[in-house]
Every structure is written in structure tokens, then in C-alpha cells.
Specification:
The complex is a heterodimer of chains A (about 800) and B (about 140).
Chain A: H1 2-27, H2 33-38, H3 40-57, E1 62-69, E2 74-80, H4 82-105, H5 112-131, H6 135-153, H7 160-191, H8 196-200, H9 203-208, H10 212-226, H11 235-238, H12 244-253, H13 257-270, H14 274-295, H15 301-322, H16 325-356, H17 372-386, H18 392-405, H19 415-439, H20 456-474, H21 477-492, H22 508-525, H23 527-540, H24 546-569, H25 574-595, H26 603-607, H27 612-630, H28 634-655, H29 658-678, H30 692-718, H31 726-737, H32 742-750, H33 752-788
Antiparallel strand pairs in A: 1-2
Helix pairs in contact in A: 1-3, 1-5, 3-4, 4-5, 4-12, 4-16, 4-20, 4-21, 5-6, 6-7, 7-10, 10-13, 10-14, 12-16, 13-15, 14-15, 14-19, 15-16, 15-19, 16-17, 16-18, 16-20, 16-21, 17-19, 17-20, 18-19, 18-20, 18-22, 19-22, 25-30, 27-28, 28-29, 31-32, 32-33
Chain B: H1 4-27, H2 35-53, H3 60-89, E1 97-102, E2 107-112, H4 113-138
Antiparallel strand pairs in B: 1-2
The chains are: A mainly alpha (about 800), B mainly alpha (about 140).
Chain lengths: ~800, ~140
């Protein structure tokens, strides 16, 4: 229990600690110390997670509950099983290397305090996502990852492109998150629980439910936006504006895998139907091909890696979509492989960017002499990405091919394997573009400054990750029993038995790999010509890209729509707003009474008994109200308005409600004075601009209010629609809340939440008034200064 | 407004109003009264002083920050009472009360957490009203 809480909340605690200390930290030169200190956090998390692995083998997954909102079955609940351990190791392990790398990467001019604050927040949120055992806990952490990703992409917020990328990521993943929340609620309709372990055992109920398809589509929208599946992938290339450690961490190894994680997590409950395969594998394969085609076009190395990430995510998604035991195992293996080689490659790009001042292939090339170590890392990473032997990527590529051969619900035989090979051709081509163009070919232009290699500190992390890539290829058994088998078991729902190896004899996947290499080389040789065609296509048909939809539809369309709506709803005239509000209230009161089938009893009106004092007060009340409407002078109108208020208060006194009366008196007194103070800003007399029509409308509305409310009151007296709660309050106020003044007890105790929000509204209102008056004052002084000049 | 008669009346009435408002605040749980009414009454007393003396006795304009602290402090107090309920009683805004024997006056007094919450409400109402008054007033 303590261990899991430490794993999830230690990063948050670190983030809070940095936040609290930030005024001090920002003053002193933190230098490299802060980053080195922060590196302990992922290290501790990683050690705790690794220490957990032996316990996993003993069988059942561990679950920890902390009650949160009991009424709705929402708990802060954590689940430790193979899948969460695998992701936990990825997050904390790569997190550790990224922090070490960032110590070198960030120069002393950068705002390191903010960087590590956001980074730790992200790490905690991400660990929360993978260890959650409750859909709501998962959703909360999920949204937190979107927010911290937004903050990190916008880290260099002075750059226009950063702000654009950050907003885009937030808009797309945020919309997906909302769809996902709706999906969780639909899922709850089926399962009546938010507990993930319970949901996973209810697979048959879920699959046979009529709500299965909507729940799956909504939840998958969340996964697809987060994991950048086509056509939602467009945010990921723009997210590359973030500092490189962030791109390596969030946008290749961890956060974008959250969608994969959730798909994998829920696959025991959802997979196994034709719809699941069509949706998930369909999205995955389309993404894989489209992103591959786009990746070979990029000249910016980071953009190339971004598209390659999208393509690889599509591949994992496709494997999850096939839904067989073998494909589930293959997906798990590739998750680990991809994280290792992609993080290493991103770090290499960061080193190139640092060493040359740019990472564009137009300026950068032939780096193998200047950057010998980065070159070696890049060779390992790229060959693994391309799926060539002795590296981890080869094993998972073979498994991918194998799983396409045995996929269920295949539409046409050989179609899916062909698509898989086609997509892998592009993977091969862009891997080699990265390697050959970056390290062998001479670039057409010169880089801004002469390339130089990074120091030890910058190289340490990618070197270690590259070693992992080799180990994953040569000795996959190291990982398979401890890590991959439990994870695969969690994905498929059956115990897994992995036999990973480089050589399985000559079989169909090997032949497919052979074709991939041969045809991929052909594509690579023709790359320049293909790129030229691609450029031509994208220039002539711009609407082909989903970016077009986002830019035109979202960034331009929505403000336009809002402006149109605002023009309708926010006219800027108080009287319009009042009219709409009052008319709406009256309409709803009327509709409600009609829907309840209440009958009007007019005779009641004449049976009402009234004392002389009450009658007189009411008569005065009517006079004062009429006077308010008739007076032309504002001060008189205000005073007679106050008069109505006081008379109402007096009516309370007569009818025996001292509390109400007291409140009413005080409210009237204070508000009359405050309104008089406001009057300074207004002309003393009402202007007679109102046309006959406006007057008729106003009078009509006033009469409607009077009539509707009067009839409503008459009807309410007879109805027993709801049981009155007053009796309960009267009986229990002293026993439960220790107060005899029931009105006060209701305000501060029974309905304390309402009161809290009311005083919040108070405070917000005064802040609004403050802003309005102060802003007005400032603009006034400015215009005055302008006229003086 | 600032006639000598008004000023003299305010001198007597305002302190009474404010003392009475505190009385209303403290007894609110048992008898008519409470934070909202008391807050309004205190602000009425302050508004009277403001109308009678303007800025000649008390520099409202430069002290207005005090009233901003007042309402934000009140909000914080109410919220913290709710949080205390969360930590002690198990959920947010859980209330509790206890009776204590007062030695000197030989009476049983009741202490309710809701009363502290009410003080928060009082501070917010009072702070908002007076801030509003100084904000609108300083424009002249």
C-alpha cells in the first residue's frame, strides 16, 4: 500500500515541493543541481516498481482502495498487475534517463524550475493512469497528463509555434478525453461499476449489450486522440516544439502510449468481436500506412521521428485490434522495443540540434565523423526501428507479421499481411533516411555552426537506451519472464508463454521481412523523386490534410460561430438580458405547472383571509411598485423601489417571520445606498427613447410575470407533489446540528455547500466590479494622457 | 449628507449597530441572526460612517485592501472549516458541536463548527459590501 502510494504520489510531492520553493529556487542559480536532485524521484519509483516484480509471479494482481466519493462508487483505487508494472517501468525508467539528459540539454538560461515542476507533475499523472483501478481515477490522471503536456509543449511560450502546438494538443486530446468520459458513463450503464478489475471479468455481458458499440466508440475516441491515430494525429508533429527531452519522454515513449495502454487494459472486456477488430485494427493500420507515407517526406529530423512515432503507434494499435493471444503478446513486446529505440533516437536528434544549431536535413548531414558516438547510437536505433536482425525491433516486427497472418475476421485473405508489409516498407525507408541522410550524405547547405559531439552527460542516457535495444534483441529472455509475460497475460486475459528469439527457421514472416528489406531499399533509392511528387500533391490539394480541417474548421470556424452566437445572445443591453431571463423563468414555471396537470382554482383567490394590517401593507406595496415604474426621476424611482422592499419586509413581520424580515430590511438598506452610489454614473432622468413597441413588450412581460406567479402560488398551495422537507429540518436541527435556529442551521450546516458557493459568487462579483471600475479608470487616464500629448 | 445632525447621530448609532451585529452573529445558531444578517448590519454601520464623514476620519481609499483581505479571508475560513470536517469527520463540510461548561458564569455554552463557518460567511458579506462601497465611492 505504502509502496504504490509512494510510486504515484512521490512525483506529485516533488512537483509541489518545487512549486513551494520556486520563489527561492528562481532567485539562486540552480544550475545543474536541481535536475540531479529531481532524478532521484524517478529512480525511487523505478526501484519500487522493480522490487514489486517478484510478487507478480505469485499470481493475483494487487488492488488497493481509498474511498473517495462513496455514493457513486468512485474510489482512488490502484491495481498492480503485469501491464501496469510494464508501463510503470517505462515511465519511471525513461523518466530517469530523460531527467539526466535534460540536465545536459537545458542551458542555465532556461527556467529549469518550471520545467521540472511540469515534468514531475506529468510523471505522477502518467503513473496514476497506469496504476488506476477505477475509471474515474484513471480519467482524472488522464486529463492531468493532457494538461501537463500542454504546459510542456508551451514551455517556450514566447514562440508562436509553441503556443499553436500546445493549444492544438490540448484541444484534440481534451475533446477525446470528453468523449472518453462519456464512454465511461455508457460503460457504467452496462456494468454498474467503475472498478476496472470487475469490468474486466464482465466481458460477455459487455459484448452482448446493445450499448457495447457506443461505449467502445466513445472510449476509443479518447484512446485514438491521445495515441495520435489518423486523423487525430495532427497534434503530435506540432507538439515537437517542446524541448527535446519532453518530446523523447511524453511524445514518443510514454504519454502517447496512454491510449495504447487503455486499449490494452480494456481489451479483455471489449475485444473478440468483429467490430472491435474493424475499429481498432482499422484505425491502427490506416495510421501506420498514412504516417509512414508522411514520414518519408520530412526533412526536419524531429518531425520525421514524430511521424514515425505515429506510424509505430498505429502498428501497436493494429496488433491490439487483432485481438488474438499472439497479437496481444506481440503488442506488449513492441511497446517495450519502441519506447527504448525511439527515446534513444529522440535524444540523438536533441544532440544534433544542440551541436549544429538546427536539425533540418537541408543543413545537417555527413555527421558520422563529427559525432561518432551519436552515430553509433543512431545506427542501433534506426536498424531496430527498421526491423533488422539482432535488434529488438526485428523480433517485434516478425511477431507483427505472424499475427497479421492469423488475424480473425479478415476481410480478404492476404490483404492485411500485404498492408502490413506496405506500411513496413515506409518504416524501413524513413529509418534509413534518418540514418543515411543524417550521417552519410552531404547536406546541400551548411549548418549555422560547426557540428560538435555532446559531452558524457548528454550521451549517457541514449547510450544506455541503445544498450537496452541490443539486449532486447540478443537476450529477450531477460525481459520476457519477469516483465513481458505478466503484461501479455493482463492484455489477453490468459497466461502467456513467450518464446522470443531472432531465429525461428525459414517461415512466412521471415520471407515477408525479406521483401520488406528489398522493396524498402528500392523506395529509399527513389526517395528524392517520391518526395518531389509528395510536395506537389500537398501543394495542389491542401484540403487533403486533417490540419486543414483543424485550422479552418476549428481555429477560424469556431470563433466565427461564437461571434455569430454572441451577436445574438450578448447584445450588451441589460434590458435584453433581463427580458430573456425573466421570460425563460416564466416559461419554465408555466410549462412545469402544465406538465404536472395542476388545475387552477380561482375561487381560492377570493377565499383568502387577510387582516387589516396585511391588506393595508399590500395596498401600499402596490402603490410603491407602481410609483417605481412611473417616476421619471431616478432618485425617486430608487427610493420607491426601496420602499417596496421595506414593505415586503414589513409583511414578513406581520406574518411572523422575524429572520426573513431582518434580512430583508438589511438587504434593502444596504442595497439602496449602494444603488445610489452607482447612480453617480448615470444621467438623473430616464431618457424617453423607448418606442411604443418596446413599451408594449415590457408591459406585456410584467403582466405575464404577475399573472403566472399569482396562479402558480395558488396552485402550489394545493399540490402535494413533493414531500416537504421542513418537518425533517424542524425535528432534527437541534439533535443533529446543535442549533435551534433552523434557518441558520439550514444555511450553515444542512446546505453548507450551497452557502459556500454563494459566498464564492459574492467574491467573484466583487472581483468583477473591481476589474470593471479599475479598468475603466485606467483607460480614462490613458485617453486623458493621449489628449494632453 | 454630512450635516452636523447626521454626523452626531451616526456617532451614536454606528457603534450600537456594529456591536449588535456581533451579537447577532454569535447567537445565530440558536436565535434569529447569523453570518449573513450580521455581515449586512456591520456593513450598514460602516456605510453610515462613510456617508457621514467621507474620508475625513478614516482613509477608505488607501485602506481598501484591508476589505479585500477581509472577504478573501472569510472565504478561506469557510473553506478551511469544510476541510477540517473532511479530516476530522470524514467528509467535506461535516459539522460537529460540543457543549462546554463555562467556569465563571456557570453556564453551559455550545461550540459548533458551523458557527466558525458562519463567521466566514460574515466576513465575506461584510468585506464584499464595504469593498463595493469604497470602489463605487472613490470614483467621485
Amino acid at each position: 500500500m505504502t509502496a504504490i502510494l509512494t510510486i504515484v504520489f512521490l512525483p506529485f510531492a516533488a512537483s509541489l515541493f518545487i512549486l513551494v520553493l520556486s520563489p527561492v529556487l528562481q532567485k539562486v542559480q540552480v544550475g545543474k543541481k536541481l535536475g540531479s536532485a529531481v532524478a532521484f524521484v524517478p529512480f525511487v519509483c523505478l526501484s519500487l516498481i522493480i522490487a514489486w516484480i517478484p510478487e507478480l509471479k505469485s499470481g493475483a494482481p494487487a488492488i488497493f482502495n481509498i474511498s473517495w466519493v462513496k455514493t457513486y462508487g468512485i474510489e482512488l483505487s490502484f491495481l498492480v498487475d503485469g501491464l501496469s508494472i510494464l508501463f510503470g517501468i517505462l515511465i519511471s525508467g525513461i523518466g530517469f534517463f530523460v531527467v539526466i539528459y535534460s540536465v545536459w540539454y537545458l542551458s542555465d538560461k532556461e527556467d529549469k524550475v518550471k520545467f521540472y515542476l511540469y515534468l514531475m507533475m506529468f510523471m505522477g499523472a502518467m503513473l496514476g493512469v497506469v496504476f488506476s483501478n477505477n475509471l474515474f481515477g484513471l480519467f482524472t490522471f488522464w486529463e492531468l497528463t493532457s494538461i501537463s503536456s500542454f504546459l510542456l509543449i508551451g514551455f517556450w511560450y514566447h514562440k508562436e509555434a509553441s503556443r499553436y502546438g500546445a493549444t492544438k494538443a490540448l484541444v484534440i486530446t481534451g475533446l477525446g478525453g470528453i468523449a472518453m468520459l462519456a464512454g465511461f458513463i455508457v460503460l457504467y450503464q452496462i456494468t454498474e461499476t467503475f472498478d476496472i478489475t470487475k469490468i474486466l471479468t464482465m466481458g460477455d455481458t459487455i459484448r452482448s449489450s446493445p450499448l457495447y458499440v457506443p461505449a467502445l466508440i466513445l472510449i476509443f475516441l479518447g484512446c485514438a486522440t491521445k495515441s495520435a491515430q489518423f486523423p487525430f494525429h495532427i497534434w503530435l508533429p506540432n507538439a515537437m516544439e517542446a524541448p527535446t527531452p519532453v518530446s523523447a519522454y511524453l511524445h514518443s515513449a510514454t504519454m502517447v502510449k496512454a491510449g495504447i495502454f487503455l486499449t490494452a487494459r480494456l481489451s479483455p472486456a471489449f475485444s473478440g468481436t468483429a467490430f472491435w477488430t474493424a475499429l481498432v485494427a482499422g484505425f491502427g493500420l490506416t495510421t501506420m500506412v498514412v504516417a509512414g507515407v508522411l514520414a518519408i517526406r520530412q526533412t526536419d529530423l524531429k518531425a520525421l521521428l514524430a511521424y514515425s512515432t505515429i506510424s509505430q503507434l498505429g502498428m501497436i494499435m493494429a496488433m491490439l485490434g487483432f485481438g488474438t493471444q499472439y497479437s496481444g503478446e506481440a503488442a506488449v513486446v513492441h511497446i517495450l522495443n519502441h519506447a527504448a529505440f525511439k527515446a534513444a533516437l529522440f535524444m540523438v536528434v536533441g544532440i544534433i540540434d544542440h551541436g549544429c544549431g538546427t536539425r533540418d536535413l537541408t543543413y545537417v548531414g555527413n555527421l558520422r565523423k563529427e559525432m561518432p558516438h551519436s552515430y553509433k547510437i543512431a545506427v542501433i536505433g534506426c536498424l531496430s526501428m527498421a526491423g533488422l536482425p539482432i535488434f529488438g525491433g526485428f523480433i517485434s516486427k516478425e511477431m507483427f507479421y505472424e499475427s497479421t497472418l492469423h488475424m480473425p475476421f479478415a476481410p480478404v485473405p492476404f490483404l492485411i499481411p500485404t498492408v502490413a508489409v506496405l506500411a513496413s516498407l515506409f518504416t524501413f525507408a524513413y529509418s534509413f533516411k534518418f540514418l543515411i541522410w543524417g550521417f552519410f550524405y552531404k547536406a546541400p547547405e551548411h549548418p549555422p555552426h560547426h557540428p560538435h559531439e555532446a559531452p558524457m552527460l548528454g550521451l549517457a542516457s541514449p547510450v544506455f537506451l541503445a544498450l537496452m535495444v541490443i539486449l532486447l534483441g540478443l537476450t529477450p529472455g531477460l525481459f520476457s519472464h519477469a516483465l513481458l509475460e505478466p503484461a501479455a497475460a493482463a492484455v489477453t486475459g490468459q497466461p502467456a508463454d513467450l518464446h522470443l528469439g531472432l531465429w525461428h527457421g525459414i517461415n512466412t514472416p521471415l520471407i515477408m521481412s525479406f521483401f520488406t528489406v528489398v522493396l524498402g531499399t528500392v523506395i529509399f533509392m527513389r526517395l528524392k523523386k517520391i518526395n518531389a511528387v509528395q510536395d506537389e500533391v500537398s501543394a495542389s490539394v491542401p484540403w487533403l490534410s486533417p490540419n486543414f480541417v483543424y485550422n479552418k474548421g476549428f481555429l477560424e470556424g469556431i470563433p466565427l460561430l461564437t461571434r455569430r452566437c454572441l451577436w445574438w445572445f450578448q447584445s450588451g443591453y441589460l434590458k435584453h438580458y433581463l427580458f430573456v431571463i425573466i421570460a425563460f423563468v416564466m416559461a419554465s414555471v408555466f410549462m412545469f405547472s402544465v406538465s404536472q396537470g395542476w388545475v387552477l382554482q380561482l375561487d381560492r383567490l377570493f377565499k383568502t383571509e387577510m387582516t387589516l394590517v396585511q391588506g393595508l401593507t399590500v395596498a401600499f406595496l402596490i402603490c410603491a411598485a407602481t410609483a417605481t415604474a412611473v417616476f421619471k426621476n431616478r432618485i425617486s424611482a430608487i427610493l420607491s423601489l426601496g420602499m417596496t422592499g421595506f414593505l415586503v419586509a414589513f409583511l414578513y413581520v406581520v406574518m411572523g417571520a422575524p429572520d426573513l424580515a431582518l434580512t430583508q430590511y438589511l438587504v434593502e438598506a444596504v442595497s439602496v445606498i449602494l444603488i445610489l452610489l452607482v447612480f453617480y454614473f448615470m444621467p438623473p432622468y430616464f431618457e424617453e427613447k423607448a418606442t411604443q413597441n418596446t413599451k408594449a413588450v415590457n408591459i406585456g412581460l410584467s403582466v405575464t410575470v404577475g399573472v403566472v406567479m399569482c396562479f402558480y402560488m395558488l396552485m402550489v398551495m394545493d399540490s402535494h407533489l413533493v414531500q416537504s422537507i421542513s418537518q425533517y429540518y424542524l425535528e432534527t436541527s437541534e439533535k443533529l446540528a446543535g442549533g435551534r435556529n433552523v434557518v441558520n442551521v439550514v444555511i450553515v450546516d444542512y446546505r453548507g455547500f450551497d452557502t459556500l458557493f454563494e459566498i464564492c459568487v459574492f467574491a467573484i462579483a466583487i472581483l468583477g466590479i473591481y476589474a470593471m471600475l479599475r479598468l475603466k479608470k485606467k483607460t480614462n487616464t490613458k485617453t486623458r494622457e493621449a489628449t494632453l500629448k | 449628507m454630512s450635516s452636523i445632525i447626521f454626523k452626531s447621530i451616526v456617532k451614536v448609532v454606528s457603534p450600537i449597530l456594529m456591536l449588535f451585529s456581533v451579537y447577532l452573529l454569535l447567537r445565530g445558531h440558536q436565535l434569529p441572526g447569523g453570518g449573513f444578517i450580521a455581515g449586512l448590519m456591520t456593513s450598514a454601520g460602516l456605510v453610515l460612517i462613510y456617508l457621514a464623514y467621507g474620508c475625513e476620519r478614516f482613509d477608505w481609499r488607501n485602506r481598501s485592501r484591508f476589505f479585500y483581505f477581509l472577504f478573501s479571508g472569510g472565504l478561506a475560513l469557510s473553506f478551511l472549516t469544510g476541510m477540517a470536517g473532511l479530516f476530522v469527520g470524514g467528509f467535506f463540510l461535516k459539522s460537529g458541536f460540543t457543549h462546554m461548561h463555562m467556569p465563571l458564569i456557570n453556564e453551559d455554552w455550545e461550540f459548533a463548527s458551523a458557527a466558525i463557518y458562519d463567521i466566514g460567511v460574515y466576513l465575506v458579506v461584510c468585506g464584499v459590501c464595504v469593498s463595493l462601497m469604497t470602489l463605487l465611492g472613490e470614483e467621485k
